[in-house]
Specification:
CATH superfamily of the largest domain: Type I PLP-dependent aspartate aminotransferase-like (Major domain)
Number of helices: 15
Keywords: Cytoplasm, Isomerase, Porphyrin biosynthesis, Pyridoxal phosphate
Largest sheet: 7 strands, mixed
Number of domains: 2
Oligomer: single chain
Cofactor: pyridoxal 5'-phosphate
Bound molecules: 4'-deoxy-4'-aminopyridoxal-5'-phosphate
CATH class of the largest domain: Alpha Beta
Shape: globular
Catalytic activity: (S)-4-amino-5-oxopentanoate = 5-aminolevulinate
Low-confidence stretches: none
Number of strands: 13
Subunit structure: Homodimer.
GO molecular function: glutamate-1-semialdehyde 2,1-aminomutase activity
Strand content: 5-15%
Length: 440
């Protein structure tokens, strides 16, 4: 369907962008480098659909990389932002809305009566949230080392890029230039789902480890669910050594359920700090760190751990976050879960029909295709898949009007606005894409 009067093409926009910005983008995977086609330049979005500069409409499974959980430009979210904007774009001072959002987060993240988030600090990006959580863990423990897992992505701060997922994985980079070796040395990288490897690291250096940081369920190397009880086991191990568990729910928080992955992991566990982003900001720049009052009150102005932000708790972002959380009721999650199930099932059938070796790993309503015979359990097995099958698959979907994440290492984001028509369009496009993957 054509809904926009076109004056330029995607190719023209990309050429112009490349002359103005490195790679033509403000975040690497948007350059479509690994999928071998021209990135689409979008001009509008509504519900489950996005429209590019050429006036072409796509059913969208990127969802702004997660925030658009109610669908794009949800009327209540847009209205909340407009109302907030009419009262001022920001004051650099406290607002009642910030407290209300903090209270919402604290109330929702609960399980069996436990409430791991007693205090919240709002920041602007997931990167800031994890960076601050790590500083807090170091400040609380007086220790320097951090443990992360290979293939997990926690944003682009210096200490967290080693063997990172997401764009770092897509570009096959081991880490990043520009990170001083002494800083990189403070991060110990362990294979995911490997408790023995983790125990060895703690045996050797446990007294110097401030925290383990973990994606609640990894979604930045494709979906790789935790082994049964893995989160509980690493929480226990960290605590046995006096270290903290930082649960990164930037991607999963308020997406896989009201209380995030924390609320649905088959084995309950106790995280010390939780980071949120994406959904909690409803599409505007907002993220958060939460934890017990005792830990969180180590932050300035009460404690010795410094953290600040000119735009932190921005009223427009707070309004978008509150309106989004307000509309994420049981019915919305039911629609997202059902849409995800139908699309994942249809993808599996189409790939089987085309004879493509694959697995579709799911974690709640998150899923992704992996071109492997056995379910990958860590970064090594993820990397061993036939990733070359994804670019033709992706392009065939795009040609049929479906916008997927432009990397095999990313999750597919279904929204509550993916109605029968949108799901049907995706389902109908899958067989041709599966055949393209088969021919790769
Ligand atoms: N943690 C996780 C689990 C993420 O998925 C991301 C972003 N994809 C981040 C942190 C970083 O968030 P941001 O891009 O907002 O800095």
């Amino acid at each position: 369907m054509t809904t926009h009067t076109s004056h330029t093409t995607n190719a023209e926009e990309f050429a112009r962008a490349r002359a103005a910005m490195p790679g033509g983008v403000n975040s690497p995977v948007r350059a479509f480098g690994s999928v071998g086609t021209t990135p689409r330049f979008f001009v509008s979005a509504s519900g489950p659909r996005v429209t590019d500069v050429e006036g072409r409409e796509y059913v969208d499974l990127v969802g702004s990389w997660g925030p658009a959980i109610l669908g794009h430009a949800h009327p209540a979210v847009v209205k909340a932002v407009q109302d907030a904007a009419a009262h001022g774009l920001g004051f650099g001072a406290s607002t009642p809305g910030e407290t209300a959002l903090a209270e919402l987060i604290e109330a929702r993240v609960t399980r069996d009566g436990a409430r791991p988030v007693e205090r919240v600090r709002l920041v602007s990006t997931g990167t800031e949230a994890t960076m601050t959580a790590i500083r807090l863990a170091r400040g609380a423990t007086g220790r320097d080392l951090i443990v992360k897992f290979a293939g997990h992505y926690h944003g682009h701060s210096d200490g967290l890029l080693a063997e990172a997922g997401s764009g770092v994985a897509t570009l096959a980079m081991p880490g990043s230039a520009g990170v001083p070796a002494p800083i990189a040395a403070q991060t110990l990288v362990v294979p995911y789902n490997d408790l023995d490897a983790l125990r060895e690291v703690f045996d050797a250096r446990g007294d110097d480890i401030a925290a383990i940081i973990v994606e609640a369920t990894p979604a930045n190397m494709g979906i790789v669910p935790p082994a049964h009880g893995f989160n509980a086991a690493i929480a226990d191990l960290a605590h046995a050594y006096g270290a903290l568990l930082i649960l990164d729910e930037v991607l999963t928080g308020f997406r896989v359920g009201t209380a995030g992955w924390y609320g649905i992991d088959p084995v309950p566990f106790v995280p010390d700090l939780i980071t949120f982003g994406k959904v909690v900001g409803g599409g505007l720049p907002l993220a958060a760190i939460g934890g017990s009052a005792a830990l969180m009150e180590l932050l300035a102005p009460l404690g010795p751990v410094y953290q600040a932000g000119t735009l932190s708790g921005n009223p427009l972002a707070v309004a978008a976050g509150r309106a989004t959380l307000d509309h994420l009721d049981a019915d919305a999650y039911e629609r997202i879960d059902r849409g995800a199930e139908r699309i994942a099932d249809a993808a599996a059938s189409a790939l089987s029909e085309a004879g493509v070796t694959h697995v579709i790993q799911r974690a709640g309503n998150l899923f992704s295709i992996q071109f492997a015979a056995e379910p990958p359990t860590d970064y090594e097995t993820v990397k061993a898949q036939e990733a070359f099958r994804y670019p033709p698959f992706f392009r065939a979907m795009l040609d049929q009007g479906v916008s997927l994440p432009p990397s095999v290492f990313e999750a597919w984001f279904v929204s509550a606005a993916h109605d029968d028509e949108a799901v049907a369009q995706i389902v109908d496009a899958l067989p041709a894409a599966a055949r393209a993957a088969a021919e790769a």
